[in-house]
């Protein structure tokens, strides 16, 4: 829709932020790989949204206009995806009252239909790989999303400081 940032509006709102903001990188252009190489250039084929990034982007909250526009462009280009695990996590957040989203299934269906966001389902190999990751993050679902990004060769869109300790390229812009 012209003049609107983010995917089509849906019912719901954030009850509070998911994570504290990660420290910005030196140039404010996104995260750096462990060896200091910037990520997010033309060579990257796919970006995988972490759960909080999915929720922020879909509800139009918690992202700078510049970053939301970048995610919109990636989605239109067919380069933005989400792990099916994130919809499970979102349903749990709604059930716990951490986000207000009365119809998670309807929200998911409308979001995918209207935006064209690719939904990736982790296979058994990804699940095993997630269990073998070091327990830097206590949440097994976050480790599963990290393993999914690694398996797909995707940049993980996340501001979670613990996720950023894994050897997966990440991206976040404030």
From TrEMBL:
Superkingdom of the organism of origin: Bacteria
Domain PIN stretches: 47-166
Pro residues bias locations: 1-11
SUPFAM superfamilies, per the entry: PIN domain-like (SSF88723)
Coiled coil feature spans: none
InterPro entries: PIN-like_dom_sf, PIN_dom, PIN_Sll0205, TA_system_RNase
Pfam families: PIN
Region Disordered, residue ranges: 1-39
Protein name per Swiss-Prot or TrEMBL: VapC toxin family PIN domain ribonuclease
Naturally occurring in which organism (per UniProt): Solidesulfovibrio carbinolicus
Taxonomic path: Bacteria, Pseudomonadati, Thermodesulfobacteriota, Desulfovibrionia, Desulfovibrionales
């Amino acid at each position: 829709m012209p003049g609107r940032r983010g995917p089509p509006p849906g019912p719901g709102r954030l009850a509070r932020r998911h994570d504290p903001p990660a420290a910005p990188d030196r140039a404010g252009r996104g995260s750096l790989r462990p060896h200091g190489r910037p990520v997010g250039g033309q060579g990257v084929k796919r970006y995988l949204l972490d759960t909080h990034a999915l929720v922020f982007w879909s509800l139009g909250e918690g992202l700078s206009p510049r970053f939301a526009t970048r995610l919109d462009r990636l989605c239109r280009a067919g380069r933005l995806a989400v792990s099916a695990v994130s919809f499970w996590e979102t349903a749990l957040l709604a059930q716990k009252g951490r986000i207000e989203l009365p119809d998670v299934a309807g929200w998911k269906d409308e979001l995918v239909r209207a935006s064209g966001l690719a939904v990736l389902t982790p296979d058994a190999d990804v699940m095993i790989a997630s269990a073998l990751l070091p327990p830097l993050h206590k949440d097994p679902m976050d480790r599963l999303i990290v393993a999914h990004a690694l398996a797909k060769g995707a940049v993980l869109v996340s501001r979670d400081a613990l996720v950023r300790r894994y050897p997966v390229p990440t991206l976040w812009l404030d």
